[in-house]
């Protein structure tokens, strides 16, 4: 068994990360999930939050994901993200503006479907701002 886990983070736009890492911590729907070599196989949904990629005992990279799915095997962890952004690339002013706009969209939704879609987008926008302002696992 290898002492590293192969990790890939893919969004519809591009491959954001591919490499061997010591550990990955993911924002799974049921709570944060650490993936180490030899992890039990699992498929889970990802909630909006921060993926932390570890090299040794420290975080080498943090990436915000708006949601998606993860597949874990004993040797590999693959995340298929709705959208993904390196934390350092998040513009907090733009995120705050997006939250304001989405809050207005929720308030002025014409029907339940429109309101539900705006609420989902609002949760992701709030998580993005939180990720930028409060790095996970400092």
* Beta-strand fraction estimate: 35-45%
Biggest sheet architecture: 5 strands, mixed
Order of helices and strands: EEEEEEEEEEHH
CATH class of the largest domain: Mainly Beta
CATH architecture descriptor name of the largest domain: Sandwich
Q: Based on DSSP secondary structure assignment, what is the total number of beta strands?
A: 10
The CATH homologous superfamily of the largest domain = F0F1 ATP synthase delta/epsilon subunit, N-terminal
Q: Report strand order across the widest sheet.
A: 2-1-9-8-5
Number of domains: 2
End-to-end distance = 29 Å
- What would the principal axes of the Cα set say about the shape? elongated
pLDDT < 50 stretches: none
What is the residue-mean pLDDT, rounded to a whole number?
93
Q: Helical element count?
A: 2
Q: Using only CA atoms, what is the Rg?
A: 16 Å
Characterization of the model:
The protein is of the alpha+beta class and 138 residues long. The chain has 2 domains: 5-87, Sandwich (ATP Synthase, domain 1), CATH 2.60.15.10; 90-133. The chain has helices at residues 92-107, 112-133; strands at residues 5-10, 15-21, 23-28, 31-35, 42-46, 49-55, 58-65, 68-72, 76-81, 84-86. The strands form 2 sheets. The chain has a 5-stranded mixed β-sheet, with no helix packed on it. The chain has a 5-stranded antiparallel β-sheet with strand order 4-3-6-7-10. A hairpin with a 2-residue loop joins strand 6 and strand 7 (58-65). Helix 1 runs antiparallel to helix 2 (112-133). The protein is elongated and about 55 Å long. The two termini are 29 Å apart. The mean pLDDT is 93.
